[in-house]
Amino acid sequence: MFAMVCLALICRYYHNITSNTLVVLEAMAAHGVKTLIYSSTCATYGEPEKMPITEVTPQVPINPYGKAKKMAEDIILDFSKNSDMAVMILRYCNVIGSDPDGRLGEAPKPELREHGRISGACFDASRGIIPGLKVKGTDYNTHDGTCIRDYIDVTDLVDAHVKALQKAKPRNVGIYNVGTGRGRSVKEFVEACKKATGVKIKVDYLPRRPGDYAEVFSDPTKIYRELNWTAQHTNLEESLKTAWRWQKAHRDGYGAS
To answer: What span is annotated as the signal peptide, if there is one (predicted)?
Structure first.
């Protein structure tokens, strides 16, 4: 059963990401849409030999998600070579937070909760939806043994999209990493979540998950230099507090407020 579930998830990655990107490009060509701001991921880099990652770091993805995104990027680049499209590819780091005004937040479908972001799992544990938090992997080559990631507040991510759209030019491709330039470990993230929610989350430490890489964080120099963008919301605990307020006000997602 576990193998069947894993296979279904892998197929979903390639269908939803790679195949559907091709569908979108075909629709754009058919209807004369000339500008594409593409949501990609730093997972396309896999486990780089050097930190921080830059836009010229070799892309060697090690899991289906990163591979599916890399394939989608390649398709986009091939399309752009034969058209006058304006293309911006934004490679996100791990997204956290919510709209500061309380309008939008993270509400994944029930069947996707188990495979969602660590922030969602932390909040589910804080609300008692799940009995505790499962941290997979404590033997990575990092300062505390857990994975290190670059966490980007969704408000900063929105700003990056706006600036990318403003700078998009026909027959031109811009590729940018969107991150803070600083890595935080999973243990640090969990402690910040405990402080943000005020809940003593039960944490179980389990063996590492296949396909996870030890450390990745970005060098945001290029996006600052070319788009005049830099992350403003870099206090991890404050971003989690904002998201937690939304979670408490929308206990049934968008079905209640």
So the answer is: none
